[in-house]
């Protein structure tokens, strides 16, 4: 699962979509992102 910057920002900011992103990340077998987003 590719994690883009908007998902990371959403979780850091505590936005409404943060919970669904967090759940998807916890269930993903191997989440990854680009070095620019990290």
Q: Count up the domains.
A: 1
Question: How is the quaternary structure best described?
Answer: single chain
Percent of residues in helices? 40-55%
Arithmetic mean pLDDT = 88
- For the terminal residues, how far apart are their CA atoms? 15 Å
Could you give the count of β-strands?
A: 0
Low-confidence parts = none
What is the alpha-carbon Rg in Å? 10 Å
Percentage of residues in DSSP E strands: under 5%
The chain-level structural class is mainly alpha
Number of helices: 2
Outline? flat
Provide the succession of SSEs: HH
Q: Please outline the major beta sheet.
A: none
Per-chain topology:
Elements: H1 5-13, H2 18-27
Care to describe what's here?
The chain is mainly alpha-helical and 38 residues long. It has one domain. Helices cover 50% and strands 0% of the residues. It has two helices and no strands. The chain has helices at 5-13, 18-27. The longest helix is centred in the middle third of the chain and has 10 residues, at 18-27. It is flat and about 25 Å long. The relative contact order is 0.31.
């Amino acid at each position: 699962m590719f994690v883009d910057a908007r998902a990371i920002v959403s979780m850091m900011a505590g936005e409404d979509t943060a919970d669904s992103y967090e759940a998807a990340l916890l269930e993903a077998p191997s989440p990854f992102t680009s070095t620019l987003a990290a």
